[in-house]
C-alpha cells in the first residue's frame, strides 16, 4: 500500500512529533503538581532522560506513546503498512532502548514508572494517576511499574 502523502510531507509530519510536552505528559505533570509533587522535566543527566524526575522520591517517570514504544495489545500500537522492514527495526530498537534505560535507572536505585498514553486518555485517568501517586509514595526502591490501559486494569503491575 502506497503512502497517501509525498515523502517530503511525511518527513515534515514525522519531524513535527515532539519528544516532550505531549498532551499525556502535560496531564501527568498537572496532576502531580496539583497533588503537591515537585519534579524536573526531561532530565538529561539521568539515563534515558526521563519525562519527569522526582528527586526527593528517586522516581523516574516515562510517559510513553503507545505507537512508538509498542504497548502490547493496544489499538494505538498499529504498524504502518508501508516500509514494514523499516518499522520493525525502528520499533525493536525503541523497545530495546527502553529496557536498557529502565535497567540502568533501577540499578542506580531509582523507581521507574512507565505510564502508557492510553491510560491517560481514557475515562479512568483518575485511577491511573492515583496508582501513580501511591507508587511514588510507597513503592520499593529499585523497582519498576507500568500503568496499563485503564480499561483493562485499574491496578499497577510490578515487573
UniProtKB/TrEMBL annotation:
Gene3D superfamilies: VSR Endonuclease (3.40.960.10)
The organism's place on the tree of life at top rank: Bacteria
UniProt keywords, alphabetically: DNA damage, DNA repair, Endonuclease, Hydrolase, Nuclease
UniProt xrefs under InterPro entries: DNA_mismatch_endonuc_vsr (IPR004603), Restrct_endonuc-II-like (IPR011335)
Leader sequence residues: none
GO BP term (any one): mismatch repair
Pfam annotation, one family: Vsr
E.C. number: 3.1.-.-
GO terms assigned for molecular function: endonuclease activity; hydrolase activity
SUPFAM superfamilies referenced in this protein's UniProt entry, alphabetically: Restriction endonuclease-like
Summary of the function given for this chain in its UniProt record: May nick specific sequences that contain T:G mispairs resulting from m5C-deamination.
Family, per entry: Belongs to the vsr family.
Protein name: Very short patch repair endonuclease
Amino acid at each position: 500500500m502506497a503512502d497517501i502523502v509525498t515523502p517530503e510531507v511525511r518527513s515534515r509530519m514525522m519531524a513535527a512529533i515532539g519528544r516532550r510536552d505531549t498532551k499525556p505528559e502535560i496531564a501527568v505533570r498537572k496532576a502531580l503538581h496539583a497533588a503537591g509533587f515537585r519534579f524536573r522535566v526531561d532530565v538529561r543527566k539521568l539515563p534515558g532522560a526521563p519525562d519527569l524526575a522526582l528527586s526527593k522520591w528517586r522516581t523516574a517517570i516515562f510517559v510513553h506513546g503507545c505507537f512508538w514504544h509498542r504497548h502490547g495489545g493496544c489499538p494505538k500500537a498499529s504498524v504502518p503498512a508501508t516500509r514494514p522492514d523499516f518499522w520493525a527495526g525502528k520499533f525493536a530498537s525503541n523497545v530495546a532502548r527502553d529496557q536498557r534505560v529502565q535497567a540502568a535507572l533501577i540499578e542506580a536505585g531509582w523507581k521507574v514508572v512507565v505510564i502508557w498514553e492510553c491510560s491517560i486518555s481514557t475515562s479512568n485517568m483518575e485511577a491511573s494517576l492515583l496508582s501513580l501517586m501511591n507508587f511514588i509514595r510507597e513503592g520499593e526502591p529499585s523497582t519498576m511499574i507500568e500503568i496499563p490501559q485503564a480499561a483493562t486494569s485499574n491496578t499497577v503491575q510490578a515487573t
